[in-house]
Every structure is written in C-alpha cells, then in structure tokens.
Amino acid sequence: MTTTGRGVLAALLASQALRGLGYGLAAVQVGAVLRGQGLDAPGVGLVLAAIVAGSAAASLALGRWGDRFGRARSYGVLYGALTTAGVLIAAGAPAWLLALVALSGALSTEVVESGPFTTLEQVMLASTGTRQPQVLRGFGVYNAVATVAGAAGALLGTLPVDQRLVGGTLALVGVAGALLATRLPASVEAPAAERTGPRRALASSRGPVLRLAGLFAVDSLAGGFVVQAWIAYWLGVRYGAPTRVVGAVFAAVGLLQAASFLAAPAIANRVGLLPTMVFTHLPSNLLLIAIPLAPSLPVAVGLLLARTCLSQMDVPTRQAYVMALVPPAERTAAAAVTNTARYVTRPVGPVLAGLLQPLGLALPFLVAGVVKSAYDLALWRLFRPVQLPPDTAVITGGAS
To answer: CB 121: neighbour CB atoms within 10 A?
Structure first.
C-alpha cells in the first residue's frame, strides 16, 4: 500500500473508531435522554424516524451528487451536522429541531451504522490505488474497528444517563471527524472528468447493482428477525438466562465478530469474494435454525457463538465485491443504493418477529434462517456467472 493509501486508511479507521464510540453511547442512552426531557413515545418515535429517514435520504443524495460536490467535503459536512446534533442534545433542544438535524443523516439508530458515512468510507477505501487483497484487508480492519469501538461506546453507556455526556461526546466526535476530513488527500475524490461530465449515477452497472440491492434488502430484513435484543429476550424466556450471562455472551459475540472480520479477507483472497460471501453464510444460517432446537442453555450459546464465527464474514467481502463489480465512476452510487437497501428494511424484521411470537418463540429463528439461506442461493445463482472486471486486481480511483 502506498504512503497516501496508508494515510487514507489511518484517517478512516480513526474516524470509524470515534464514530463507533459515539454511536455506541447514543444507542444506549439517547432514548432515556429524550424521555428525561419530557418526550412521550410519539416524540421519541419522531426523532428515531427522522434518523432512519435521514440516513436513507442522505445516502441516496450522496449517490447522486456526492462525487460532484466532493467526497471529502461531503464527509466534513456530515461531521458538521453530527456536531450540531450533539450540541442540540446537550442543550436539551426541542424534538422537532433535533429531528430536523437528524434528517441530515449524521445520526444513527444502531451502533454500527449503514448510512452516508459508510457510503463515503467504502468508496474512499476502494480508491486508495492499492491491490484488491490490500483493499479487502482494509475493509476487514474497518469493520472490526467499528465493532470494537461500538462495544466500548455501549460500555460507556452504562454510566448514569446524562444528556451532556451523550451530546458532548457526539459533538466532540463531530469536530474530530471534521478535522480528519480536512486531512484526506485528493486521491479519495472521483476523477475530474467524472465529477464534471454529464452522466447517470448508475449507468453500466445499474442492473447488477439493483439486483444486489434487492438481495441485500431481503438478507437485512431476515436479519432483523434475530437482532440481539430479541435473542436476549429469547434466552431469558426459553432458558431463564440472567442478564449477566446474556451480557457475557454478547461480549463474546462482539469479539468473535471482530475476529471474523479480520479472518474473512484471508479466506476471500484464496477462494474469491463471492464464494466467501455465500459459503460462510450458508452454514451460519443452518446453525441459526438449530439454535431454538437446543436442549439447554450451554448448547444454545455454543450454537450462537459458532454461528457468529461465520455469519459476519460476508460483511467486508460484500463491501469489497460491490466496489470491485462497478466501474470507479459509479462506486458512490452503488454503495449508496446497496447500503440504503439494507438500512431501510432491517427495522421491519423485529416488528414481524414480534407478530410471530404468539405462534412460537422458535419461529423468528426458523424464518430468518430459511430466508437468509434463500438469499445465499439466489446470490450464488445470479452472480456466479458474472465476471469481475479484469482490472480489479488493482482497485483505483482518485482525482486527476
């Protein structure tokens, strides 16, 4: 990796670590902060809905105009919006004003967000002018950092609820991120001809990207059936697991996820991106289906941890596959569309899981496992014949 490439990677990893810390804290405390400010359930729902809508809208806007406006400039603007949101939270601003700022896409309802920040970072990581194995390793480290930082932020959230802590942390993260954005080199930008010439956001890659987005949306919807909150609830109801045990299990889950992010590039560099995506995901889905059939808590936890070792290996490989599949001029739009497809469908899963609960606690696991397996098979069938462009041995980008 070139010196410039290493600088870009270091800046993005630092940015991801800071943001993960802030988002992890906010995920734990922001709901309680809003309640403490006198907001009722509809008011809290308004703010959360604005966050989801803002992430989707901002990602799509970046896909359409981000390269022309400038990737580093867009990155800095997002961090400016995050700083503003943090100040408003710390000051106890009214819900409508916070919701308005949330429409910028700078906030997240999850510890590891899939919104406009991720869209820009994926494209900038793929534009370092390094060979694909190095880029893929970068994606692995990037996701591992997000997981560890998010866990640290969630741990920080165990402190007494304080709007100044939440808002102040987000504001500091925003300022630090904006400063990091100013240090990004010109190589992260789209080539000059692509920034100024008339073009569609998705041209030659429109069909494959839309098919991927549809498949990713289905996978994310299925994943929403078995979010950690639901699994924690299920372990308590099914086996009487106390919260201290559940907490220890989820801590182990986080560590295994980070390890799998780091291991995935080594596998993908040997067998390929698509095989790694599919053939690590399929066994994890079978393990997911087996979890509710476990006769005891230790067996269920063992199956859950085994599933975790495999289930997240498709994340860095999926990101690298999208970047390798499309031409450099369409990467920002492709990342925006595929990330947004995953982001907007995931919240539907927990709602459907709750509706299935009266029919049996095992059903969310079974439905998720079956739908995810269907996703894997469809992904393999549709994209196995697709050849990655021959020039993806070196993933390039950058201004000219």
So the answer is: 25
